[in-house]
Records
---
Amino acid sequence: MKEKKVFQLNGFLAVLLIIVLLGVAVFMFFKENLVLAILFVLIAGVLGSGITIIQPNQAGVVTFFGKYLGTIRESGLFLTVPFTLRRTVSLRVRNFNSKKLKVNDVEGNPIEIAAVIVFKVIDSAKAVFDVDQYEQFVEIQSETAIRHVATKYPYDTYDNVELTLRGNAEEVSNELAKELQDRLNVAGVQVIEARLTHLAYSTEIAQAMLQRQQASAIISARQKIVEGAVGMAQLAIKQLEQGNIIELDDERRVQLVNNLLVAIVSDKATQPVINTGTLY
């Protein structure tokens, strides 16, 4: 099916014509010409059956005894083919908020995910005749696309070499919109935007994953501290030797480095020990 334009005329002219026909019928009735009076009344009734009203941002799908004739997209009062059925289809932009879906990411971790889909109908014929209840079709296909996209990526990663659901929300949303558009073309629906609204680990593993994130953060922080401590120890030894302040042999150099690393890397504040020599 493909949308096409149906025969239509200005509805106000049709109303005026009907009024004129009814007036002529009344005149013929008083002239005792019942045949013409009835004929004009029937003509007015036939024209009246073709009058329809289309609201702004709506479309009227016109069918005649099961055959699709076309669509009226303009808003206002119109006269179309008599004895036809007109079904109204909204062309307005609408939102669909999916419920929280429980799926497994590419690593098998259970997660909760939800999204909002912004869409509108661009082909009324496909929306009415190619699918049954296109609103429900959009909901089911949206949830299916969300599940499929969620299973292609990990929730999070710690090597920063691949796309993740949490760290690349923009890329994931674009792929979701593209896949959803491919699914909804058959229904004449255009996907304007698709955005993730909820993303979290499932409750049964949320605590374990939080501990994993905390451990990774601690390890990363420790690596930075050790790198800084080594640099500071090297700089301290270099400055002491360059200024001819003291001469350090290998044993004292190792001891100094050890003390500096312990002082810098330790979680707790170090307590200095002052050597005052031996008392006699």
---
Amino acid sequence: MPAVVVASNAPEFEGRTTVYVILCGIIAAFGGFIFGFDNGISGGVTAMDDFLMKFFPIVYERKKRAHEDNYCKYDDRNLQLFTSSLYLAALVASLVASKVCSKFGRKPTMQIASIMALIGVGLTAGAVNMPLLICGRILLGFGVGFANQAVPLFLSEIAHSKIRGSLNIMFQLFVTIGILAASLVNYFCSKIHPYGWRVALGIAGIPAVILFFGSLFIVETPASLIEREKLELGKQTLKKIRGTDNVDAEFDSIVHASKIAQQVKHPFRKLMKPVSRPPLVIGVLLQVFQQFTGINAIIFYSPVLFQTAGFKNDSSLLSAVIVGLVNVLSTLVSVYVVDRAGRRVLLLEACFQMFITQGIIGAILMAKLTPTSTLPPSLAIIVVVLVCVFIMGFAWSWGPLGWLIPSETFPIETRAAGFSLAVSMNMFCTFLIAQIFLSMLCKLRAGIFFFFAAWILVMGLFAFFLIPETKGVPIDAMVERVWKKHWYWKRYMVHNTHYDSDDDEAKDPKK
């Protein structure tokens, strides 16, 4: 049996949840809205005939042929590239954003994200040819990469340990709100001819504008200020966000962690050391598992998926709206539960829920959906209900916790670097799924759902044995309270003295 770390013994610092912190969290979380809106908008746009006629006429003709294979009519590499190019760009951007985050702070990184996203939105909405369309997606991807790097770190660092889970999940909550908003936009814009797709893509600029101007009024995190040797400003900021002048204990803890961080000149090299293995392995694999639940295959292509199952264009877009609404409401459940029930309970329960639903969906499609038929209306509705149940499980567990756990488990000296690797892996897996899903659907047919179900089984075992509980543990106390007490990960802490310097220069001053 894996040891479960009990967080009740963790030291607590003074402070309360201030309105200002909540407002800062909401503004920053619009970075998640940008990410979620794009997740949802691309699938709806690629189902619009006007968009297909302009950029993908071959797919449009194939879609109109009644005898075409249900599973293969959208199988087109360029169509997949439209969706996936953003995530490949975000992968590269997240590595650059790590250095920007460390050197300049979380707040400027979010501002850069909003500017790049705005330029990308302009290019995609105004595109007249494929190169402009893809260039816009790439720039939008840079914005997503910068936002996904900075926002979860910002939320974890401004939050008191008692509400860190709930506040951090605001990022994922806004991702789901963005997906829902995109579904609604797709539904109404599909009726605007011939430029509905331009309107849909252009609306993505609204959250970027909100993030840019909103970020002018929020604070930089105390950890980032102290890390960059702005001690007095860091202390004043800490007092402001905690709502009390008695912050000496927490301030000293951050200063101590920052001094250790300053000894580490090469954080990415430090991540390769055994002592960094627990948060690195968990942070990276969470991203792999998050994407291989099949969630983004459903979010990206839910209109396409429902059309494949026999829904008409309007009804498939409306079904995507229902899925988006379920996603938002279920994420709200996580906001309420995560700091009460803990992380592990949510992860394990969701694995069971998602495994069952993926298996049943696969069985229904395998038995009843032939390449040239449609599902009976009653079975089609059951598929939509099962997709919603699957979304519920993901939305209150692996969705938000895939961002929360890596943002709270790395020590300050490798936090930006470690989280950037996690974000990069997330973007890589998102790119991979977006690029291959339609081809996999064509080749595996209903078997694709069994493929994702097998991954869910593996990740359930991983969560049970190797993911510790971090509920209520102060962010700079993870080594003592979590890793050194875990049945497996403690072996990597044997030679550790709170993440001592990994650099040869620190060991030998002559170098």
---
Amino acid sequence: MDLALALKAIVLGILEGFTEFLPVSSTGHLLLAEHFLGLNFGDEQFDKTFAVLIQLGSILAILGVYLRKLLQIAFALPSDPKARNFVIGVLAAFLPAAVIGAILHGFIKGVLFNPLVVCIALIVGGLVLLVIDERAPAPRYHDATTFPLSMYVKIGFAQCLAMIPGVSRSGATIVGAMLMGADKRAAAEFSFFLAMPTMAGAFAYDLLKNYKTLDTSHVGIISVGFVAALIAGLLVVKGLLTYVTKHGFAVFAWWRILVGAAGLAGLWVYG
């Protein structure tokens, strides 16, 4: 692996780690970076696979931050109905994306992975986030581990919108939770918990489908991107909840609109 490829992997890994848990769409940002900045590896199929596989770094970032809480929940499962409700809720929220994602995997990667879809989704999602940030229903739920089971399921279906690149998995989850009465912090925190099985499932599915096409050089590139995503993800996870509790999501909404509009302008000028 030469230096140029390593630098591309580092930049894309940092971009993945910083944007995965923000409601701005990591996939959309990676795709636009590849299209406009040439941050790709010259193999369209591997570029898409790389974007999925380096998410493992982001998954480990959440596990690192929430390990103690996850262990507490795990040890409480035999005796605590609330712990069981939460674990069942996360799994129930994960299932819609698992089923629909597996069925539409080819269509999503073959048709929806293009810059125009991303730019439109970024702008529309930014406008939605602005409205929800200001006009969401009065919060009734303040702890992501105590939502009703039906609410977990509905959030899971909301997450499926993120199969459109540019929508944002965390953004769809957060908006869905806030519309159902979660406060901003709880909505963001549940997006972290739901990310673990969702991203792990996407990682495993993509690896299973593409491992035969990966060679030694690919493994090196993915490893570099993974480490960069892990470090960046740790920084975001630790700071996001504090920020959104005080300031909300408006800055991320405007960022989405700015990036989407710049992307549309770039497509109009450069194609």
